[in-house]
């Protein structure tokens, strides 16, 4: 039977893989992976001899065609990422849709995830959380995403590279210098580190290399307790002034400002739009 397997793999420690995952990778006809050199190390460790083929952001369309042809021939194909679960901040969901549209079976073999691992260790609230993946690189877009989600109750989970970790932490501190955050790096590896503290202290730890800029990072931002937020910065100004503040002080378009005001005040965007444009 043709099956597309989505297989979770270790995020660091090679022992963090299930018996089912090893069996699936062993029995599959082909393993498609981000970097064949990375997956080859895992296969060598578990004596898996299944042929490896590449599937990544730059060749996913061509590779998807190849995978669908193999499924048409009755083959069993496993898809993995370099670390963690395929399709999570990695390409793959388009392939899953194509496989389903062609009535091929899709089976998931779950495994480790860096964001969840960090959340478990951080001590931050874990009943509500939102995964944001990698933030936009440009400062304006990054700040808009942070402004939007830091006003929610949910703990926000972000992936970041060692090259941009300081800039992202600074952006969080500028929005709320009192906010509690956690930084996780080298998760499940020998030098695993998870630090939870106020953002300004975390920022200083990055500056003095108490938190080295090495490895891939997970940033967790504690959500706000909305029940205790009785006073908002925009209370005392009317709806239209609220919109104008975002336009003039945050360099937002009127469309984005209206959307943000609707989120702030828990209103329908249409009502804010009509109120703002009536004054014109």
UniProtKB/TrEMBL annotation:
PROSITE patterns: RSMI (PS01296)
Stretches that traverse the bilayer: none
CDD domains attached to this UniProt entry: RsmI
EC numbers, comma separated: 2.1.1.198
UniProt domain Tetrapyrrole methylase: residue ranges: 4-200
PANTHER family: RIBOSOMAL RNA SMALL SUBUNIT METHYLTRANSFERASE I
Name under which the protein is recorded: Ribosomal RNA small subunit methyltransferase I
Species: Mammaliicoccus vitulinus
């Amino acid at each position: 039977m043709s099956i597309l397997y989505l297989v979770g793999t270790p995020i660091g420690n090679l022992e963090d893989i299930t018996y089912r995952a090893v069996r699936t990778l062993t029995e599959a006809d082909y393993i498609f992976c981000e970097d064949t050199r990375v997956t080859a190390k895992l296969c060598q460790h578990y004596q898996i001899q299944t042929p490896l083929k590449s599937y990544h952001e730059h060749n996913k369309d061509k590779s998807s065609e190849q995978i669908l042809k193999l499924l048409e021939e009755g083959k069993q194909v496993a898809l993995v990422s370099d670390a963690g679960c395929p399709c999570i901040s990695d390409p793959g969901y388009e392939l899953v849709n194509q496989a389903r549209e062609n009535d091929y079976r899709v089976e998931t073999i779950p495994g480790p995830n860096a964001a969840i691992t960090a959340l478990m260790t951080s001590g931050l609230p874990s009943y509500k959380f939102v995964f944001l993946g990698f933030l936009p690189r440009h400062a304006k877009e990054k700040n808009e995403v942070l402004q939007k989600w830091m006003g929610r109750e949910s703990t926000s989970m972000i992936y970041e590279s060692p090259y941009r970790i300081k800039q992202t932490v600074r952006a969080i501190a500028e929005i709320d210098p009192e906010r509690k955050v956690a930084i996780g790096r080298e998760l499940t590896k020998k030098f695993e580190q998870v630090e939870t503290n106020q953002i300004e202290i975390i920022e200083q730890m990055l500056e003095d290399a108490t938190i080295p800029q090495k490895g891939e990072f997970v940033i967790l931002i504690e959500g706000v307790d909305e029940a205790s937020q009785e006073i908002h910065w925009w209370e005392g100004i009317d709806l239209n002034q609220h919109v104008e503040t975002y336009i003039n002080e945050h360099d937002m378009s009127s469309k984005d400002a209206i959307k943000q005001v609707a989120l702030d005040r828990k209103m329908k965007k249409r009502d804010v739009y009509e109120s703002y444009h009536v004054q014109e």
